[in-house]
Amino acid sequence: MQTAGPFPNETTRRATLRLLGLLGLAGFAGTAHAASAPGWPEDAFRQKTPDEALKLLYGKSFEASDKITLDVPEIAENGAVVPVAVSSSLPGVTRISILVPENPYALTASYTLAEGTAASVGCRLKMAKTSNVIAIVESGGKLFGTSKEVKVTLGGCGG
Amino acid sequence: MASTIRVRAQAGSTSTEVQALIQHPMDSGFVKDSDGKLIPPHHIETVTFVHGGKTVLTANWGPAVSKDPYIKFSFAGGAKGDELVVTWIDNLGKTDTLTAKLT
Amino acid sequence: MRVLAVSILAFGLSAPAFAATQAEAEMAVAAAVKADAQAVPGNRWVPTVTALKAAQKALAAKDWDTAAAQAALAQALALRSVEQSKEQETAWQDAVIR
Amino acid sequence: MKIRRLLLTALAACLLGGAAPAPASPEADRTAFQAFFKDRFPQTPFADFGNGPYAVNAPMRKQWEEIMQFPPYDFALDEGKTAFETKFANGKSYADCFPSRGIGIRQTFPYFDTKTGEVVTLDLAINRCRVANGEAPLKYQTGMMASITAYMSETSRGKPFAIEIPDDPRARAAFEEGKKFFYSRRGQLNFSCASCHASSSGQRMRGDILAPALGILAAFPIYRSDWGSMGTIDRRFTTCSSQMRAEPLPPQDIRYRNLEYFLSYMSNGVPITGPGTRP
Fold first, then answer.
1. Which of A2, A62, D87, D261 has the most CB atoms in a 10 Å sphere around its CB?
2. Does residue A144 form part of some domain?
3. Total-model pTM
């Protein structure tokens, strides 16, 4: 019986990836793209610090706000799956981004909201080690942010 | 083949709550396999949710979103029976799409 | 705790302080294999297996010193695991929730 | 009755050596075992012990509840249901191999088969069903075996473990063997199952909260974040062995089956919660 996974031919997929790796196409530097999704802000996702990532993503910096709720666990049960929820009472929120400064790349997720979409998203992230989690909310063309520390005892990056 | 996307979208009186789970390895490119070789990055870059021709949410993801990613959000409006089209595309150009009905 | 102490001791002893001959290495590996064979199923220690494999690999590569040292380590660990199993034959009863 | 008693005494003598006291009845063992955990975790409702570490650690429970909003085992569950409902090449299906057509029966496994004189787990029964119908057995530990047991567990959720020890000295011996395995120290680290999951349950070991042994199998199969995939009871047992630095036994080895028999009997009354998620 075959497992109905997302990749019907897993062996071929792995073989292709291995080949890409051998050709040096799938290395560290993020050149692994066979095709980048349209509109995916690759440069911002390749930055090691939140500042650099935010500069590339928004072209501006943020100010602290208490109108953002960042719900994260104090101690992650496993760094591989850290539930994160961001919501805000700020008006007209257009984007919500989540950054983890201690991860190899700081920017983790960025959501673009349509008018009428609630300023509230939940997702699950990988964290390599104990780090702050930063939530950035864009409202009325300005950036606001808040952060909270999550302790990680079992790293989510193969540790 | 079973879809890689599972969606629960519930229309309430004023808004619709959406939860989605996508089957994807989300390999970060920083993890080594059992032979000590780096597993190349393979992760979803973009997910879109379209309701009534309008993109209600676009998610841009890096390699640090968890394996088999999950997302939860809500948008104004939506009625039972409406269609919600969910599409993802990853860094290798693979893609999948699912049309779900609001419940 | 004693188990741990002895294993640490065994690691300490494993550094080859002598130049082993082929005959000595072969004898050491044979002794380790014999000791390992006495291990109770489900309680063959992982480091025993690792050391034994390393000893056999070194033997094949004619590295007598390494073979002898790894075999001595494997033998010590195997004997300790056998001793642990024997001790637990009755000792487990002290742990039972009553 | 007298003969049985005699047999049991003889058996006990074989198992434990002449000098040792005769073992308590399995029922007395179970009562003491459950009392130990109720006493250790007075805040935990009995039915909650099927939720492992989440039953005894509030901050972890919150993360778990968030994950359970859309659990990652959903894909496996779907796959298992489809496979369960798909006919074999000979036109039969899994349902033909089990009582109640395989629905809502997880809590009765493992059982002691008085015909063959051995403990039969659900996973083993699934493979025997396949082989009897001309299909190749599934690999244990993960993949399709985990998916099918996930589905079968899901149809049994809320049903309390109901393991029986039939009036057969071999069944009693299997139980005693499982008990001995549970309490015996092994591996280079010199731990027993009990050292972690009884005496230290609820405490942190590295990053993990150690689950209480009571009800520990109720959630299987599980999606473990650490594995990034599904795993069966065999996967958990073999992983535990390796973590204690003991070479694992083969999946479904009779010693593991006896251990599962012991643990499940000790958990009688705890409702099935599987499939589950764990860190």
1. D261
2. yes
3. 0.83
D to A contact (≥3 Cβ pairs closer than 8 Å): yes
Per-residue pLDDT of chain D (279 residues; tens, 9 = 90+): 445 554 554 444 444 444 445 568 999 999 999 999 999 999 999 999 999 999 999 888 999 998 999 999 999 999 999 999 999 999 999 999 999 999 999 999 999 999 999 999 999 999 999 999 999 999 999 999 999 999 999 999 999 999 999 999 999 999 999 999 999 999 999 999 999 999 999 988 877 889 999 999 999 999 999 899 999 999 999 999 999 999 999 999 999 999 999 999 999 999 999 999 998
Query: What is the C-alpha separation between D277 and C90, in angstroms, rounded?
Result: 36
Residues with Cβ within 8 Å of residue D205, at least 6 apart in sequence: D196
Confirm if A115 and A80 have CB atoms less than 8 A apart: no
In CATH terms, the superfamily for domain B5-101 is: Immunoglobulins (2.60.40.10)
**Closest CB to D144 among A1, A76, A154:** A1
Q: Are A48 and A12 part of one and the same domain?
A: no
ipTM of the complex: 0.80
Q: How far is A64 from chain B (nearest CA, A)?
A: 23
Tokens of C58: 């070194």
Q: Which two tokens stand for residue B36?
A: 């000590």
Residues A87 and A115 placed together within one structural domain of the fold: yes
CATH homologous superfamily of D24-279 equals: Cytochrome c-like domain (1.10.760.10)
